[in-house]
Design goal:
Layout: H1 3-11, E1 35-45, H2 56-74, E2 77-87, H3 92-108, E3 112-120, E4 124-136, E5 139-140, E6 153-157, H4 162-170, H5 178-189, H6 195-200, E7 207-210, H7 215-226, E8 229-233, H8 237-240, H9 246-249, H10 254-263, E9 270-274, H11 279-288, E10 293-300, E11 304-308
Parallel strand pairs: 2-3, 8-11
Antiparallel strand pairs: 1-4, 2-4, 4-5, 6-9, 6-10, 7-9, 8-10
Helix pairs in contact: 2-3, 4-5
The structure holds adenosine-5'-diphosphate (ADP) and magnesium ion.
Length: 329
């Protein structure tokens, strides 16, 4: 199969939303009047972001999910995406499930594949996603990292740490019971981009980011961009993890669970801030988007992040570095 047959077979579909899709030199997008275009790219590289032999359907899902997560963090509505693919071989047994995983998630978010590039090379998947956010008088409603103010509440969506637990388990760090491993592995391979929540938070959240590198690290970007600090309270890792509970406690120490929650990475949840007067509105946005959110701290003027345990006691740890994964409090 040649390059053009491959594209025609797996990646060329009629478009509904875009003015022109795959097949010409450029795709043409329609943008609603009074909106700004939101654009983001993310690359998945074999050996760095996934292991050789990774399930192609999961890869298709995750490659688009991590990009949609960036749109979610800005409160943008997905429109379209392009796919740049380096393939070691033209293998229908890989391409078929890859395109299925990719396009199933695309359909779910009404986000059309409109173009891309295909070349031979070590497996590399790069997606650029396009979305739109309302703007009036030149002022866009996109959620930015820079708007957090002292006194704001700090929230996170969904659950944290499961993906890192699954990864460490695959690396042989510990062995998880099957039910725990299933939940954790699904979170690692099939992250859920929080697109509906991001859009529902427009006009409410003062700042937002999606968590790809770990809660504290990514929160740090918000704090830096906003010129503030934060106090973070973690009452129990079991409540923050999707796979938390007695079965996990039996094989992974609490301290490691906490490290996964605070610094695990690959979560693709949203961390965001909002004024305390908006608690009811944030709860309504969470309900409307069927996405659980947890309030877990607040913004302070003093720079840095102070991590507190359930009783308000300071927790010390080099959370951002998993070289210190074995540290004890
Ligand atoms: P050009 O040489 O003009 O860049 P190409 O031959 O690379 O065009 O691609 C032909 C058409 O197929 C273009 O519309 C391009 O956007 C699309 N395309 C190429 N690779 C992919 C892909 N992996 N997924 C979707 N569309 C693709
Ligand atoms: Mg090309």
């Amino acid at each position: 199969m040649g390059e053009f047959d491959l594209i025609a077979r797996y990646f060329r579909h009629p478009v509904r939303r875009a003015a022109l899709g795959v097949g010409d030199d450029c795709a043409l997008l329609r943008i609603s009047p009074g909106h700004q275009l939101a654009v983001s790219s993310d690359m998945l590289v074999q050996g760095r972001h996934f292991l050789a032999g990774a399930d192609p359907q999961d890869l298709g899902h995750k490659a688009l999910a991590v990009n949609l997560s960036d749109l979610a963090a800005c409160g943008a509505q997905p429109l379209a995406f392009t796919l740049a693919l380096a393939l070691p071989a033209v293998d229908p047994r890989w391409l078929e499930p890859f395109s299925q995983g990719l396009l199933a998630l695309a359909r779910m978010h009404d986000c059309e594949l409109v173009g891309g590039d295909t070349t031979a090379g070590p497996l590399n998947i790069c997606i650029t996603v396009f979305g739109e956010v309302p703007a009036s008088d030149g002022r866009g409603q996109a959620l930015l990292r820079s708007g957090a103010r002292p006194g704001d509440d700090l929230y996170v969506s969904g659950t944290l740490g499961d993906a890192r637990l699954a990864l460490e388990s695959l690396r042989g760090q510990w062995s998880l019971p099957d039910t725990v491993l299933d939940t954790a592995t699904r979170r690692l391979h099939q992250p859920t981009p929080r697109v509906a929540l991001g859009m529902a938070l427009r006009g409410l959240a003062s700042a937002a980011i999606d968590i790809s590198d770990g809660l504290l690290g990514d929160l740090g970007h918000v704090l830096e961009a906003s010129g503030v600090g934060a106090r973070v309270q973690v009452d129990s890792p079991a409540r923050m993890l999707a796979c938390g509970g007695a079965a996990l406690d039996a094989c992974v120490p609490q301290w490691h669970q906490l490290a996964c929650v605070l610094a695990g990475g690959d979560d693709y949840e949203l961390a965001f801030t909002a004024a305390p007067g908006l608690r009811d509105a944030v709860a309504a946005a969470a309900r409307a988007s069927a996405t659980p959110v947890t309030r877990f701290g607040c913004i302070e003027s003093e720079p840095g992040i102070r991590v507190l345990g359930a009783r308000g006691e300071p927790l010390h740890g080099d959370w951002r570095s998993f070289d210190h994964f074995n540290a004890t409090p």
